[in-house]
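Hi all, long-time lurker, first post. I run a small reading group and we've been trying to get comfortable going from sequence to structure in the token notation. Rather than ask abstract questions, I figured I'd post a concrete chain and ask someone more experienced to write out its structure so we can walk through it together at our next meeting. Sequence below, copied exactly:
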Amino acid sequence: MMKNPEQTIGKMADKSSTVFLSYIDGEGFPVTKAMLRQRERQGIRTFWFSTNTSSNKVKFLRENPKASIYFVDKRFFRGVSLIGSVEILETKEAKERIWEKGDTLYYKGGVTDPDYCVLKFTAVKGRYYSNFHSEDFDIPDCDK
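-- Answer (accepted) --
Happy to help. Here is the structure in token form:
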């Protein structure tokens, strides 16, 4: 059993260079995409990612915001799936909040590029796997 989910999962998320985002496509099938790590997180409840507004994931998340993110620690063969929903943010404030210096590589128009948006994932529950054991857990409404 996890002694401190906030700490255990938070460290795993912070060390992961890749996160897997799953969502449902227009035909009701699950799709999983590898994404760059979160730009910001608030506890283990809220995660902020950058992506292309024109991507299929944004298209389908607009139709159905239910999603999950998965972090894996290959070294210790453990992982965590967080389940929740995604908001697509296109405000100047949201974009500036997570903008990083090298982002013009992906978004030529800079922070105001119309093909740049923010995915704000909010988790409600999760499932942690480690040492041949899985456990479900809920995520409180407010983080520390």
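A couple of things your group might point at:
Strands lie at 18-24, 30-36, 40-42, 46-52, 66-73, 78-89, 116-130, 133-138.
The longest strand covers residues 116-130.
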